Hints:
Layout: E1 5-8, E2 18-23, E3 30-31, E4 36-41, E5 46-50, E6 55-60, E7 67-68, E8 73-79, H1 84-92, H2 94-100, H3 114-126, E9 133-138, H4 142-153, E10 158-162, H5 169-174, H6 176-194, H7 209-233, E11 237-240, E12 243-247, E13 250-255, E14 258-269, E15 273-275, E16 288-289, H8 291-294, E17 303-307, H9 311-323, E18 326-330, H10 342-355, E19 358-360, E20 364-370, E21 375-380, E22 387-390, E23 392-395, E24 399-401, E25 434-436, H11 447-461, E26 475-477, E27 482-487, H12 490-495, E28 500-506, H13 511-515, E29 522-528, E30 534-541, H14 544-557, H15 561-565, H16 576-586
Parallel strand pairs: 9-10, 9-14, 10-11, 14-25, 16-23, 17-18, 17-23, 18-19
Antiparallel strand pairs: 1-8, 2-4, 2-7, 3-6, 4-5, 6-8, 12-13, 13-14, 15-24, 20-21, 21-22, 26-27, 27-30, 28-29, 29-30
Protein name: Dihydrolipoyl dehydrogenase
Region (Disordered): 81-115
Domain Lipoyl-binding: 4-78
Amino acid sequence: MTQAKEIRVPDIGDFDAVEVIEVLVGPGDSIEAEASLITLESDKATMEVPAPFDGTIESVSINVGDKVSEGDVIGTAVPAEAESTAAAETEDVEPQAAESAPAEPAATPADAPDAAAAAGANANAAAPAEADCDVLVIGAGPGGYSAAFRAADLGLKTMLVERYPSLGGVCLNVGCIPSKALLHAAKVIDDAEFFADHGIEFGKPKIDLKKLEAWKSDVVGKLTGGLQGLAKQRKVEVVTGPAQFIDDHHVSVDTADGERRISFRNGIIAAGSRPIAPPGFDLDHPRIMDSTNALELEEIPKRMLVVGGGIIGLEMASVYHALGSEITVVELADRLMAGADPDIVKPFRKIIDKRYANIYLNTRVAGLEADDTGVEVQFEGDKAPSSDRFDRVLVSVGRRPNTDQLNLEATGVKLLDNGCIEADEQMRTRVPHLFAIGDLIGQPMLAHKAVHEGKVAAEVAAGEKSAFDARVIPSVAYTDPEVAWVGVTQEQAKAEGMDVEVASFPWAANGRSLSLGRDEGITKLIFERSSERVVGAGIVGPNAGDLIAEVGLAIEMGADMHDIGLTVHPHPTLSETVGMAAEAAAGTLTDLYMPKKKP
């Protein structure tokens, strides 16, 4: 019988002394290559250790609860007789050979459009014969790392270039994740204050900014550290530094060790966006912040101005108000959260009207003069004062794509008038082997959109037949209460001449919302009248961002009002409001007297 071989814990990233939570094999068990042997769990990730070859387990050296690190012996196994020699050669030789000679990407599917197939063939013909990788991804945000990991899973040698030391991009490091951590902290404070009127009274909260900042950073660190581990598991090489295109198949990366030139067969551009400021707004001044600076929690300003009444500005206003700042919001438009229907924003507006010092609509900031102690602000608007003074100003009026930082002029990629990259449903640019995703290709600039686009780009680069064909993309403001919407809004339906039926269910009639003491919410569904299919929704109330996903799925699946209304929702929950809004449209609602109107 062939001599048994030791099986050791492979490279598991930056993890050390990871706990074994499952042992899936025992002596005498047959194993297949890549089948799971054990499962490990750290505070950042759960991972399975696969078998390196076919064979039979001879002994197992570890038990559930043991702590293991890279190189520790899991056990021994006898390789399958027919593959013993090949397995030995593969362990000693093939990995190095694979790194020096990248596999050719899969060909474009035969049933793809002729033009795309021809373009793909031309791109491959022009690719460097000895490229450093099959796929190079620029930008490690949710879209970028998803693209890189998907490409690696499809067997392509993949490299990931990220400007900053941590993976995760704006979302994980200075956007979605840290802001939601702080918004949760704000909600704890608001909830405690709310229950003072209902028999549970707490003392005034003591804010330790250093501890709060450390907790927020720990949340971010767990996620970004987990990404580093996932990259290593997939053998995705991460290169740190800003990238500049040299031509359609080469980039230069300014790394800590000097300039590095990388050649690639396919490129996925996922470099994201950054905050913008109107002319005259000096974001370099410490008292004038953008959304990134606002997350650093340097101090709690006594008086704070938020310029911009969109999602990001209002989320940060929620955080700073809960921490103790007096908030003023100024918005150039005639309403807050312009993307949502006014009736969905109205309950949120009623609450912040009581909380915030001022909300100025139809008003612009005409000038800012910052000094060491504060910022003098000049306003132009009917109800705003001519000027006021604040301790800090948060500027949140939009974002711009980072296309100007990549030297795209050296490529054949085409930019639109707004600075975004032109890309098709397969995420291809005008250069067939270059793809663009996420904020770089325009609105909506949302992480969850970028993730799906990144996977499509990777699949197309691997020769799969794939396209981004989302019917709807949900939007969520994680304010208090949350405001969420998906699909067609009521205003949009009217503007486009759609014949729709609208049904709303007030949370004041929902048992769960009443038990939470939050009856201000509304769930509104919008149905196409002829088919009775749901085409849009708006929800305001606690956890609206979670509830909106059900409607997004319903739209994707082509569900009608009866499908949703006849779906049994658990009781008592907030999710019942979705079912009951559909029942209101269908005329079957019993929890309120809302007879269905005759056509």
